[in-house]
Amino acid sequence: MGEKINVKEIVKRKKEELKVEVDALKSKGINPKLAVILASEDEASKIYVGKKRKMCEEMGILQEEFILDNTVQTQDVVDIIEKLNEDKSVSGILVQLPLFKHLDMDRILDSISYKKDVDGFHPLTLGKLFIGEDETFISCTPKGIMTILDDIGTEYEGKHAVVVGRSRIVGKPISQLLLKRGATVTICHSKTKDISSFTRQADILVAAVGRAHIITKDMIKPGAIVVDVGINRIDGKILGDVDTENALEVCDKITPVPGGVGLTTVLSLLENVVQAAKEQNNI
Ligand code: NDP
């Protein structure tokens, strides 16, 4: 019988470590600050922005929000970002996705200075990740997944990692991170035939699809470590991409949903803000 990974406990510990770092920076007169741009009426996005605000407050990280209505144009958002790029008091810039449909997401994300790209979606940031450079921001969800896997002592070399999903936000970056650590990585997606023939070989299985319980017990290799990234709202409940309760009969460890990867995603954002503040002050 496998076990659910206690992500809450990992995050509590990591937050304590981060608070020590923030306090040390403040004692040197450096105040890490996150600027958040919300240009959407998406309810989930508003909740995520609220969670980020709360955690910034908890950590003593400054935060400024730009809440824009649907009359805003791409150039207006780019103008705000360009000012923030130049503003020395701002360590990191985050544009909450998705944006209003009429906005040009690529142009907006590309206008963020990669030195302040704490969400890690800038093409330069992703390119650096792809070539395996260390000095880059790792986008928050994949970084958080690695925090969990490292914390439980996961071995990567010689292991087969299978990632289901190939998005810019999760699937592609987590595949690169696992590859960098020495795992052999297979990426599956909606065009993959017979997905279970791949997932059944996975020592490390990452599900980032967005389909409730698409990964069933019979698709999991006995003894696997399973990371469930999915957040699916079904009949008022939040379900992962993995049928967790049955998966526990075969896997070794699994991240719960809720209370799993989502918790480390926000932590990673704040870690990136602190990293940005340090780099901008040559620390
Ligand atoms: P996307 O919709 O951008 O990507 C989903 C991926 O899954 C695509 O690559 C798609 O393939 C693939 N896919 C879709 N259907 C199938 C299928 N039937 N079989 C195999 N692959 C399939 O989603 P995201 O990557 O942004 O998010 C994935 C999930 O993770 C969502 O539930 C999201 O809410 C959650 N999430 C959770 C976060 C957290 O902090 N916990 C953060 C970010 C996301 P194709 O490319 O071929 O279309």
Report on the structure:
With 283 residues, the chain is α/β, with parallel strands linked by helices. The chain has 2 domains: 86 residues, Leucine Dehydrogenase, chain A, domain 1 (Rossmann fold), CATH 3.40.50.10860; 123 residues, Rossmann fold. It is 41% helix and 16% strand. The strands form 3 sheets. A 6-stranded parallel beta sheet has the order 1-11-8-7-5-6. A 3-stranded parallel beta sheet has the order 3-2-4, with helices on both faces. A two-stranded antiparallel ribbon has the order 9-10. α7 links the parallel β5 and β6. α1 packs parallel to α10, α6 crosses α7 and α6 packs across α10. The mean pLDDT is 96. NADPH dihydro-nicotinamide-adenine-dinucleotide phosphate (NDP) binds next to α10.
List the total number of helices: 10
Helix content: 40-55%
Count of individual domains: 2
Strand content: 15-25%
Blueprint of the fold:
Elements: E1 3-4, H1 7-27, E2 33-38, H2 43-59, E3 62-67, H3 74-86, E4 92-96, H4 105-110, H5 123-130, H6 140-151, E5 160-164, H7 171-180, E6 184-188, H8 195-199, E7 204-207, E8 225-228, E9 232-234, E10 237-239, H9 244-247, E11 253-254, H10 261-280
Parallel strand pairs: 1-11, 2-3, 2-4, 5-6, 5-7, 7-8, 8-11
Antiparallel strand pairs: 9-10
Helix pairs in contact: 1-10, 2-10, 6-7, 6-10
Bound molecules: NADPH dihydro-nicotinamide-adenine-dinucleotide phosphate (NDP).
NADPH dihydro-nicotinamide-adenine-dinucleotide phosphate (NDP) binds next to helix 10.
